[in-house]
Design a protein that fits this description.
globular; two-stranded antiparallel ribbon; 7 strands; 25 helices; single chain; mainly alpha; D-Maltodextrin-Binding Protein, domain 2; 544 residues; 2 domains
Length: 544
């Protein structure tokens, strides 16, 4: 089956199907995707491409590369939401192809590793998920792998300046994508070069190696500072402190949020390996690997120090490990290449594929079971077609007899992507409206166009309505009810965005417009209604 099409075409077709379904079935996710789109939109409206803004305030949490690329898409195609949603997927595709190049550079004599690596990476469930999300981590993953590629080429073909320059570009691109964290991904493996080069290290020019590494860091710094210095001057003292000191020190010493114990990444490691955890040849090949092999050592020097460092940092999110997934894919591909199947590869993929078929059965039966057990009302709306599709696809691949390792890995990869597509379609069939902020955003924009002032009652506003409504001015954010009441008194024709769970205390006679939002609801409450009904204080405060 694998030989029916060129290897690169398989990758492109699987990736293309995944992204096409994502673009057609789901909206921009609040709060992350809508927030980043809002920042790009506000920069676009302001025509300020140095300092990112969110709701009228400088946004120092992330560097500007993603926002620049969003605006570049708007320059080419007009303002839309589909071009910005293609940025992360395109970086994912580039990383898949680049992973083949890294595998070829590490193991030039093992063609199968080069072919297996992108298929394994594309089949990893976490990689599939984040390939469809407009976030910074896929961009960072690409620049990390670009830096890794330059290091491999430097070690194998000599310390040519063009490769150091490429490493510098990777560092600069990574800093502009997600900050100095790229140095944590690249410096340990570069500094450990004497260990992973093994016997080849004896006559290597190490002074040139470390001097070149310093020059690459300087090149990356120049690229990053060419934005950071003028942006810091334009954004003011607070913004300047935030982009130069606040983010890096805050995340390394004590994370702003997401604080979890040091062993949390170890707990979720099986999740990172799905579905390849169920692929037997990986385990049979893994025990045969020789740690003395330079390619294996290189992947370990890349993977382990970063994994340990992230485990020790207080703030943890699963997508922080996304740039490490190519390293895992390389090791898994090398393990499969080392494996030997007694009866060939005919049934090597069957366990993983059959697990997906069981998932398909559960999804197909779920609506009927929910009607009987009454777990959640919305599950009854789920069409059994989605589970049936996954079941049919899984059984079809289970029936296929693989002739090669590539056939077997391709079957698991295709089934894994199909499973994600089915789960995504099923979820958004019943929940899409709750995650789409377009309608409330447009209503807010319509009110602003009528010179109605808008405020948001809550601890923090994440910009979820700004891009979707193409808002032209900020929303006042008020976390204290007394401030809210005073604001209503000064803006009697204004509206207040309130979030609530229970509709009973806020009947339709009180609110003007209401929309479902995630597990809650949002409403637009006229200022005059709040002023005329002081009793709403207890209602709004309890719902917020």
């Amino acid at each position: 089956m694998y030989r029916l099409l060129p290897a690169r075409l398989w990758i492109f077709l699987i990736w293309g199907g995944l992204i096409a379904v994502s673009l057609s079935t789901r909206p921009l996710f609040p709060i992350d995707e809508t927030r980043y789109a809002a920042v790009a939109w506000e920069m676009w409206v302001r025509e300020d491409f140095l300092v990112p803004y969110l709701n009228g305030e400088p946004y120092s949490h992330k560097p500007p590369l993603l926002f620049w690329l969003m605006q570049a898409g708007w320059r080419l195609f007009g303002v839309n939401d589909w071009s910005l949603r293609l940025i992360a997927p395109l970086f994912s595709l580039a990383t898949l192809f680049l992973s083949s190049a890294v595998a070829r550079a590490l193991w030039p004599e093992r063609k199968r590793v080069e072919e297996l690596t992108p298929l394994i990476l594309l089949g990893v469930f976490i990689w599939i998920v984040y390939s469809t999300l407009t976030m910074f981590d896929m961009m960072l993953a690409f620049f990390v792998l670009l830096g890794i590629y330059s290091l491999v080429k430097l070690a194998s073909s000599g310390v040519a300046f063009r490769h150091w320059a490429l490493l510098g570009v990777a560092i600069g691109g990574g800093v502009l994508s997600k900050g100095p964290v790229i140095l944590l991904h690249l410096l340990p493996v570069a500094l450990l070069a004497p260990w992973w080069r093994g016997r080849q290290a004896a006559n290597f020019r190490w002074r040139q190696w470390y001097a070149g590494l310093v020059s690459a860091v300087l090149i990356g710094s120049v690229i990053a500072l060419s934005w950071a210095i003028p942006a810091g001057m334009a954004g003011g003292e607070v913004y300047r402190q935030a982009i130069f000191l606040g983010q890096t020190s805050g995340r390394l010493v004590k994370s702003f949020a997401h604080q979890l114990p040091w062993w949390w990444y170890l707990e979720i490691l099986p999740l990172l390996l799905l579905p390849w955890l169920l692929f037997k040849p990986i385990w049979s090949g893994l025990v045969k690997l020789n740690v003395q092999e330079p390619g294996i050592r290189f992947c370990l020097a890349w993977l382990l120090p970063v994994f340990i460092a992230f485990s020790l940092v207080s703030g943890k999110r699963i997508h922080y490990l996304l740039p490490l997934m190519p390293a895992l894919a390389l090791l898994l591909a090398r393990s499969v290449d080392e494996a030997s199947a007694p009866d060939g590869w005919k049934r090597a993929h069957i366990i993983g594929v059959l697990v997906f078929s069981l998932l398909g059965i559960v999804l197909a039966l779920l609506p009927g079971l929910n009607n009987y057990y009454h777990w959640r009302t919305e599950l009854s709306v789920l069409s059994p077609v989605w589970g049936s599709v996954l079941l049919v696809v899984s059984l079809a691949f289970a029936a296929i007899r693989a002739n090669t390792a590539q056939d077997s890995v391709l079957a698991v990869c295709l089934t894994s992507v199909t499973a994600f597509i089915v789960l995504s379609c099923g979820f958004f069939e019943i929940e899409a409206e709750r995650y789409d902020t377009k309608n409330p955003g447009r209503k807010i924009a319509a009110l602003m166009n009528k010179n109605r002032d808008i405020s948001y009652y809550g601890n923090k506003y994440y910009g979820q309505y700004h891009f979707m409504g193409r808002l032209g001015r900020p929303i006042a954010v008020l976390s204290n009810f007394d401030e809210l009441y005073n604001w209503a008194g000064h803006h009697k024709t204004g509206y207040i965005i309130v979030t609530y769970k229970d509709a009973q205390p806020l009947p339709a006679s009180v609110i003007s417009y209401h929309y479902p939002y995630k597990s809650q609801n949002i409403a637009l409450l006229p200022s005059r209604i709040l002023l005329e009904n002081p009793a709403l204080r207890s209602v709004i405060s309890s719902q917020n």
